[in-house]
Recover the amino acids of this structure.
């Protein structure tokens, strides 16, 4: 059974309610038909008739109370709630839905802003970030071609502590959603000091913090990507690495590197890119690339449902 089949099967084992606010998007509507037919989740399609005027006003007032100290007035909040993302996020916040998925017709900043502001950031971690599940066909690397890439969508220039937090959140997702033993590599253009630079120092510091925060986590760095994922190269460049060239979680030093890398892998290898999956929030949410396929939406719903189980 491949990774995608495992995800869908696991989601269907305990049905969760996922809200989809992009009801005008044809890919979303087709995805819903697949989700319902395969019983992956209970979906709420946020069509206009599903938006209660009374509930919307209650959400507006609640949101206003949350952010009035920052200078927001009620009229501004009402304009914000013209975007159905916020209604979906507030449904999730109060437990009427177990998670929400959007992004086929909204940008990542739009989805992230609604999720962060409505769902709130987990105080245990203190940062919102994202990852993608990458499933590369006919690939022996990672876990049979399955990887997690992070962060590829939210934090432009993560500091060392943020990088460490991203690694821990990604490892938790790998374990819970995919059933993998996390093997985390902090990536760089250097392997074990083969080059010098500020970004390398940041990665090395992040590695140390990750080890302090999660002593049992299998993690290493700084590593060039070939030393992280190719055993033959690891034997030459990093023979003492505990990863032995078998990393399945790749932590990029910044958003630019992560975003470029995932899109290159996706387009050049025909890989499935599931996400971005929002990390570090109080409830699960998944973003989508605006170039997503119908199957990408189905699988983002499945992963979001598993995270809510």
């Amino acid at each position: 059974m491949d990774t995608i089949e495992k995800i869908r099967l696991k989601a269907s084992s305990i049905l969760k309610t996922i809200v989809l606010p992009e009801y005008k998007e044809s890919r979303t509507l087709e995805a819903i038909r697949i989700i319902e037919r395969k019983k992956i989740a209970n979906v709420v399609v946020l069509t206009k008739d599903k938006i209660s005027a009374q509930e919307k006003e209650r959400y507006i007032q609640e949101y206003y109370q949350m952010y009035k100290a920052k200078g927001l007035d009620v009229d501004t909040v009402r304009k914000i709630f013209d975007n159905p993302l916020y209604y979906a996020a507030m449904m999730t916040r109060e437990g009427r839905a177990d998670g929400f998925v959007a992004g086929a017709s909204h940008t990542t900043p739009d989805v992230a802003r609604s999720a962060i502001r409505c769902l709130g950031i987990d105080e245990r971690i203190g940062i919102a970030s994202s990852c993608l599940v990458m499933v590369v066909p006919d690939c022996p690397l990672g876990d049979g071609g399955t990887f997690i890439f992070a962060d590829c969508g939210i934090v432009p220039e993560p500091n060392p502590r943020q990088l460490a937090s991203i690694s821990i959140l990604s490892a938790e997702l790998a374990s819970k959603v995919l059933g993998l033993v996390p093997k985390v590599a902090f990536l760089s253009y250097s392997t074990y000091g083969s080059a010098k630079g500020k970004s390398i120092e940041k990665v090395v510091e992040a590695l140390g913090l990750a080890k302090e925060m999660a002593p049992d986590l299998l993690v290493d760095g700084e590593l060039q990507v070939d030393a992280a994922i190719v055993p033959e190269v690891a034997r030459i460049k990093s023979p003492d690495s505990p990863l032995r060239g078998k990393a399945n979680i790749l932590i990029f030093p910044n958003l630019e590197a992560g975003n470029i890398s995932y899109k290159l892998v996706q387009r050049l290898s025909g890989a499935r890119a599931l996400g971005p999956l929002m990390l570090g929030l109080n409830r699960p949410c998944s973003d989508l690339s605006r170039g997503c396929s119908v199957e990408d939406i189905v699988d983002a719903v499945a992963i979001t449902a598993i995270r809510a189980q």
Remarks:
- The longest strand covers residues 272-279.
